[in-house]
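Q: My labmate handed me this sequence with no annotations at all. I'd like to see what the chain might look like in three dimensions before we decide whether it's worth expressing. Could you predict it?
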Amino acid sequence: MDWLGALETLGLVCLGLLVLAIIVLLVRRAVIISHGGVFDCGLRRWKNGTPGGWALGMARYSGNLFKWYRMFAVIPRRSFQMERDDILLGETRRMDSMESLQLFDDQFVVELRAHDDQPRFDLSMSRQSLVGLSSWLESAPIGHRYEKS
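A: Here is what I predict for the chain of 149 residues:
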């Protein structure tokens, strides 16, 4: 058996799989972006008063839904969703030094709470995206509520 040929074949297969994975991620991102209104947004879930790790992603708000999509996933469906009526924006702050290593550059962290004892989430987003999200929440149609905690 020719070990060099087998090693070369294995390397080409690995390279091909890597290229395929990158293409799938790019196509997925293009599908999500094609619906418009998408911005880069990190998400961190809290459990029992303790923050989890940050996940990179993209978000969109449309109609009465805020949808968040994980950055590195194969299927182009949302990973997290909340209705506008259930969202409370909490404290906004700049990222700390550890968060700035994990997330997108020059972003802010905003606390996101749901009504009725739902778990807390943190979102990281640019100043422009934060202003847009706040405006979207405040522009709820008549009969919908918006409260800022």
